[in-house]
Hints:
Layout (H helix, E strand, L loop, with lengths): L1 H51 L3 E5 L4 E4 L2 E2 L3 E5 L7 E5 L2 E6 L4 E5 L5 E3 L2 E4 L11 E8 L3 E8 L4 E8 L24
Amino acid sequence: MPDRDRAARADEQATSYASAPLLWRKVLFSRLFLIMMIAGMVCGSSLSALAKAKALPWKAVEDALLRVNDVAVKDWSVYQTGKKTDPLLLQIGSRFFLIEVHDRRLFELDPSKIQHKSDELFWDPSDHPADPITTSDWVNNDIGGAFRIGAKLDAENRVLDLQLPHPLDVGMLPARTATPTRRRGSSLP
């Protein structure tokens, strides 16, 4: 009988040793899965927080013109992201406006949410009020050398008229020759 118990114990030990790597794999896999789930939740929440706080750089548009009620404004700037002209940020004094040209909407922005760095502004376009300012008489057309954007602010009874110059199309310029056609000191016919 003792030999039989020894043989049964030996079989149980052999079975347990054979299944031990399988058991450890299951435990290891479940722990790794749990760690990856926790890491995914932490990274996912921080990525969504970063995505919400994505401030874009806005650069000033050179040679733009602004008139309010047909009077030139002294302290103002208009900004765009990259080469896109929609949306636009308009600064008049200490006030900031988001102009969504194609949707014909105008939002007044909180100046404390806009960061100034050298000649650029940093602001997140999705961080604007839910309701736009009441406007009417929208103008959005090409007037030859510029785009004209205009709207009437109904509550203030003011008319904004913004003109943005077309970007220079260097492909339409004539090709420059490598050698000059006239030289200094040459006489003209």
